[in-house]
Amino acid sequence: MSRGGSGGRTRVKTGRGRTASSNRWLARQLNDPYVRQAKADGYRSRAAYKLIELDERFNLLRGVGRVIDLGIAPGGWAQVVRRKMPKAAIVGIDLLPVDPIDGVTIFQMDFMDDDAPDRLMEALGGQADLILSDMAANTVGHPQTDHLRTMALVEAGCAFCVDNLRPGGAYVAKVLAGGADNDLVAELKRLFTTVKHAKPPASRKDSSEWYVIAQGFKAPAAPPPAEA
């Protein structure tokens, strides 16, 4: 690689065996200010700044004591929580292996596994104040299919909130362009006081990702007692 071009941008030399798309991805990484800042700040990925920016706007981390991180790999979001709230209990899960993070419990398993919720909550030690989900299904290149698969993960996270989020807690989940669909938004509005969509500045402009921010969890009403 060599320095060249205007504005101090890094120009990527064509590498043997590298495709044009790989070269474009590498050039984007090398010239991305968030990537450079992540390295300088010791974060594992530029995604850390998405949570930092969402927190600046929505005060997500204020006073949290227990946090679940769904789709934790590579660990940038958990690092942010750990730095801002060092006394908080943090538990994460991902299909991919994740290098250890001091003070964070990490499970390498599928969140959709039947045993996952119990293992997460046992490790957390009580109801969560904040449930974060940066999960996204592997894309197949068909927008409608990709949207449906990602929405299924968002819905699973929402269902997890019902049993495991404390009253007043918050849920943050990645969605694709267009945001959560109407049925899911209606369900979130039933469960939370406020529901908004946001695209943090750290999210690339050409990315289809947005985030749904649901705050003020309303604990479901207890069922009426059974008649004698």
UniProtKB/TrEMBL annotation:
Enzyme active site: 174
UniProt-annotated location(s): Cytoplasm
Residues annotated to bind S-adenosyl-L-methionine: 75, 77, 94, 110, 134
One MF annotation (Gene Ontology) recorded for this entry: rRNA (uridine-2'-O-)-methyltransferase activity
Pfam families: FtsJ (PF01728)
Residue span, Ribosomal RNA methyltransferase FtsJ domain: 43-217
UniProt catalytic activity: uridine(2552) in 23S rRNA + S-adenosyl-L-methionine = 2'-O-methyluridine(2552) in 23S rRNA + S-adenosyl-L-homocysteine + H(+)
Major enzyme class: transferase
Main location: cytoplasm
Function per UniProt: Specifically methylates the uridine in position 2552 of 23S rRNA at the 2'-O position of the ribose in the fully assembled 50S ribosomal subunit.
UniProt record similarity statement: Belongs to the class I-like SAM-binding methyltransferase superfamily. RNA methyltransferase RlmE family.
Name the record gives this protein: Ribosomal RNA large subunit methyltransferase E
Phylogenetic lineage: Bacteria, Pseudomonadati, Pseudomonadota, Alphaproteobacteria, Sphingomonadales
